[in-house]
Design brief:
- This protein is of the alpha/beta class.
- It contains 8 helices and 8 strands, in the order βαβαβαβαβαβαβαβα.
- The strands form 2 sheets. It has a 4-stranded parallel beta sheet with strand order 2-1-3-4, with helices on both faces. The protein has a 4-stranded parallel beta sheet with strand order 6-5-7-8, sandwiched between helices.
Length: 252
């Protein structure tokens, strides 16, 4: 049996996003026994899910594992499941769909990694227990997505003096409110982690714009933003684990 892994991302016009996904696919192919690994987009720009599945079939694979590459179990996940399931029915495919990235313990490790990297790059020597952290998520009107993000924020609370979370859009607290909450606790410095998978438009422009406006309002200068999640071996390991969880049901 020839197997394919199709990673489904939300979609973006940013070339950096495609580059990151290409790297993720390359690493997944190196680390697991798939004959074909590719990505597709749920929306915005092609390749869309039907094209991604067609490419898997064109590569001669007869079993496709679809990985919804999302941080939250929200509406985007539901749309991916529906589209993939319809393609499987229409083409009589052997196709399975994994869980998204949310609630995997390695996601918590990734956040801590980004904080450690930020401290090192900025020569911040104070112990973690004296550090104040702000986790910024995209935001969603879906309660399941909200709960998954809050779970991630709560999971890192035991390691730091204070952890606040906020959202770019569609949910509360917004970035201004989140920064205000941590400034009220009189931090020495604020360590900011953008909980985003890719270096897309939100990271390049929107988050920075709202963050700078909030810091100006509260007249706080000693704040530092780390890297997004990006390309990381741990993310690849989560993808492979999620795939194996569902493939075991088929004896693979």
């Amino acid at each position: 049996m020839k197997k394919a892994l199709l990673i489904v991302d939300r979609g973006s016009r940013e070339a950096d996003v495609r580059h990151e996904l290409e790297q993720i696919c390359y690493l997944a192919k190196q680390h697991a026994d798939y004959d074909h690994v590719d990505y597709s987009f749920l929306e915005v720009l092609p390749p869309f899910i039907p094209e991604g599945i067609s490419q898997c079939m064109a590569a001669g694979t007869n079993f496709i594992t679809v990985m919804p590459y999302f941080l939250y179990p929200g509406m985007k996940l539901k749309d991916t499941v529906k589209q993939s399931a319809k393609m499987a029915r229409d083409k009589n495919l052997k196709l399975v769909i994994t869980k998204p990235l949310s609630y995997h313990p390695m996601m918590v490790e990734l956040i801590i990694d980004r904080i450690d990297e930020l401290k090192k790059s900025r020569c911040i020597s104070q112990p973690d227990r004296e550090c104040d952290v702000v986790l910024i998520g995209h935001g969603s009107s879906d309660k399941n997505a909200h709960d998954a993000f809050v779970y991630a924020a709560n999971a890192i609370r035991p390691y730091y003096r204070n952890v606040e979370f906020c959202f770019l859009e569609l949910d509360r607290p917004n970035i201004e409110d989140g920064i205000g909450q941590v400034v009220a606790r009189d931090p020495q410095a604020i360590l900011i982690v953008p909980y985003f998978l890719h270096k897309g438009a939100h990271i390049k422009r929107d988050v920075i714009k709202d963050l700078n406006a909030a810091l100006d309002k509260y007249k706080f200068k000693n704040a530092f933003m780390g890297h997004h999640l990006g390309v990381d071996e741990k993310l690849v390991n989560i993808i492979i684990e999620r795939a194996r969880e569902v493939e075991k049901r088929f004896g693979l």
